[in-house]
Amino acid sequence: MSERNDDAERPPGVVGVVGAGTMGVGITQCLAEAGYPVVVVDDDPGALAAGPRRLRDALRMRLLAGSGAGRSRPADATGEVVWTDRLADLSGAGFVIECAFERVPVKRAVLAGLDEVCPPPTVFASCTSAIPVTRLASFTGRADRVIGMHFMNPAPLKPTVEVVRAPTTSQPTVDRALALLASLGKSGVVVGDAPGFVSNRVLMLTVNEAARVVEEGTADADAVDQIFRECFGHPMGPLRTADLIGLDTIRDSLLVLLEHTGDDRFTPCRLLDDLVGQGALGRKAGRGFHDHPAPR
């Protein structure tokens, strides 16, 4: 029987988001549309400068499509968002979602910094793709209040989030994470902690093998994706999915899985390494396994 958590139904007040990249802006959109005041932190001046415009554009498109979460004008939601380069500005946040780069040293610095500036009750939710939550929690003094919340891209369009509970994560923390997701109109599937969890333990290996098929000349990227769409009923094939996620993120996630499992199958194949080295990072760069319209 799960323990009672009277705080689970209470709104967290200000929600912090660390990272103004694609995922960070997408999660910010979800929060702002649901009426939360949001503070977004990023130390990259370019990402921080582009964030407000990207959020406005995304909200406008949702409004035109009639799929917003209840706000009548994009300006209503953007007015609830503060953009800053200082972690200290999250000192008033009751819940923080960390979307930093998928590299252990980066996440260690962010989580240790958050631990210093946020009050003890604040929950830290990492949007990590593959790093075990147990390891991330060890960078803080509040392991019971650290949880994984693996949003999928694009976050505003995905109804379900993979919620990762480490052995140290308390039931009240799980309850608070699920309550926050419910307030965004999303559901959470709770899974145990392991490298890559469920989604990326399977997906990253699939992408790597699909890329290796192309590398070896068995089929081109279009044929690989067509087989997955038309034979298996996938909305996108693995290589278009990889382009959507970002090939740099795919490569980083594979390296994390390789480090934490020791399984050589997670070694990024040569074609993936080459594309990342060329800057062909997928949809955000206009080219990856496929060509894409130039990003705005």
Q: Can you put this structure into words, describing what you see?
A:
There is one protein chain. With 296 residues, the protein is α/β, with parallel strands linked by helices. Helices cover 44% and strands 12% of the residues. The chain has eleven helices and eight strands. The chain has an eight-stranded mixed β-sheet with strand order 3-2-1-4-5-6-7-8, sandwiched between helices. The chain is globular, with a radius of gyration of 19 Å. The N and C termini lie far apart (50 Å). 44% of the residues are buried. The N terminus is likely disordered.
List keywords for this structure.
296 residues, 44% helix, 12% strand, alpha/beta, 11 helices
Give me a quick take on this structure.
With about 300 residues, this protein is of the alpha/beta class. Helices cover about 45% and strands about 10% of the residues. α4 links the parallel β4 and β5 (about 125).
Number of strands: 8
Strand content: 5-15%
Cα distance spanning the termini: 50 Å
**Radius of gyration from the alpha-carbon trace, in angstroms:** 19 Å
Q: What are the low-pLDDT stretches, counting only 5+ consecutive residues below 50?
A: 1-6
How many helices does DSSP assign?
11
The description of the largest β-sheet is:
8 strands, mixed
Helix/strand-derived category reads alpha/beta
Strand order of the largest sheet: 3-2-1-4-5-6-7-8
N-to-C series of helices and strands = EHEHHEEHEHEEHEHHHHH
What's the rounded overall pLDDT mean?
Answer: 92
Summarize the helices and strands and which ones pair or pack.
Elements: E1 15-18, H1 22-33, E2 38-41, H2 45-65, H3 74-78, E3 81-84, E4 95-98, H4 104-117, E5 123-126, H5 133-137, E6 146-150, E7 160-165, H6 171-183, E8 187-192, H7 199-215, H8 221-232, H9 238-245, H10 247-261, H11 270-277
Parallel strand pairs: 1-2, 1-4, 2-3, 4-5, 5-6, 7-8
Antiparallel strand pairs: 6-7
Helix pairs in contact: 1-2, 7-9, 7-10
